Amino acid sequence: MCPVLAFTTVHGCVSVDQATANVSRCQRANGVLKPIPIYKGAAEPLLGNESSFRSENIFFGKDGIGDQPNAFPELLPSDFTPTTEEVAALALVRIARENPEATLVCLGPLTNVAIALKIDPNFAFSKVVVMGGNYYGIFTAELAT
């Protein structure tokens, strides 16, 4: 099993603050004894505007996890605070330098990765796995996909 070194959050289907809260809440729900660091990332997309990323509300709810703030574990105000002051893009650059064998798994917009590449054009992980989409939100919602 590969250890998870960090979580970075980014504006996408929900605000970066809500994404940070969701990661914190998921760690508590899974009984993580030593929480994995959460690095808060970009609060807005590099292209377009916030409204271009809001159509997912019909699928995931306003909070990104089905609008269940009181389900176990209950959402806490502290969930909205990242566990570290270092911003996501700088953390990605540092983690890649310290762990060149690590794999980067991206489950949201790649804004933090783009900023990390601007900071350090040599920024690299051994592998990058992306669950991607596209800026215009064009997708196939067929049973076969």
Automatic annotation (TrEMBL):
GO terms for molecular function: hydrolase activity, hydrolyzing N-glycosyl compounds. It holds the Pfam family IU_nuc_hydro. Residues 4-136 form the Inosine/uridine-preferring nucleoside hydrolase domain. It comes from the Eukaryota. PANTHER family: SI:CH211-201H21.5, SI:CH211-201H21.5-RELATED. Belongs to the IUNH family. This is Inosine/uridine-preferring nucleoside hydrolase domain-containing protein. It comes from Oesophagostomum dentatum.
